[in-house]
Amino acid sequence: MSVLDWSFVSLLAAAFLFLFFGLLFLLLFFLTGKNFRMMKRKRPPKNKKKRKRFIRHRQLIEKQWKRQRTWMLVFLLLAGISSGGALYSRYYQRNHLAAEETEALAKSYYLLEEVNNQLNNIKEGTNPQKSIKNIQDLSSRLASYGARKPILSLSEDNQRMLKRHFVLLQELGVNLNAQTVESLQAEETYTGYLGDIERIQTSQSNVFKHFRVNESALKQKQ
Fold first, then answer.
1. Which one, of 96, 100, 93, lies nearest residue 8 by Cα?
2. pLDDT tens across 11-28, in order?
3. One-letter-per-residue 3-state SS of 53-94
4. Which runs of consecutive H residues, i.e. helices, occur in 96-127?
């Protein structure tokens, strides 16, 4: 399990534990309070010794009652904080990418840019044999990134969005890997792949925006 998984489980377990003790002290608070109110209604004995003992006992119950109220509030507050932390942890998991997925998106970003450059080199006849080898290597890596499955902790909508993008990467990688210099120099094939790359980059921008990936920082590292 990831750190966020452990934090969710730990916080949830702590919330239940604190809630249990909070409810326990709540019960004791009501029982002691009932006892305390009954004692307040009673008249102290006239006997000096018994009166003193009675007052001391009533004060002791009052202190116990107040202490139970304090612990009840403390445990219920801790239960609220822990459950809030657990809910936020789950929300974060459902709406944020894992480190591996962020890395895959970042690397595929650079791969797409490089594939585009190599396609232009082939079209212009700039060392096409070297460029086709580069494309085969780049497309294999794109296909491998596209074969990834989104982590299950993401919400279903987020999983579908990420899966669609990964499928586009995989399809481009598989199709491009089977091409030759001659086929890529054909205008229709060349423009078709440029259009595919443009569509994937649009999908990529949407994914980056949705998951708050800093695309500007990636551009600066190019």
1. 93
2. 999 999 999 999 999 999
3. HHHHHHHHHHHHHHHHHHHHHHHHHHHHHHHHHHHHHHHHHH
4. 99-124
How far apart are alpha carbons 90 and 10 in whole angstroms?
12
Q: Are 203 and 165 in contact (CB under 8 A)?
A: yes
Give 105's contacts (C-beta < 8 A, 6+ positions apart): 97, 204, 207, 208, 213
- The helix or strand, by DSSP H or E, that contains position 197, with its residue range, turns out to be helix 187-211
Helix axes 128-146, 156-177, angle to 10 degrees: 150
pLDDT at 1: 59
pLDDT digits (tens, 9 = 90+) for 197-211: 999 999 999 999 999
CA 22/CA 158 separation, integer angstroms: 37
Structure tokens at 211: 């998951």
> Running DSSP on this structure, what letter comes out for residue 37?
H
Site of tokens 């074969």: 147
Report pLDDT for 222: 60
Residue 53 C-alpha from the chain's centroid: 60
Q: Is the pLDDT of residue 168 over 90?
A: yes
CB-based burial label for 157 (10 Å; 0-12, 13-18, 19+): exposed
CB 108 within 8 A of CB 171: no
The position carrying tokens 């119950």 is 61
Residues 6+ apart with CB under 8 A from 89: 4, 7, 8, 11
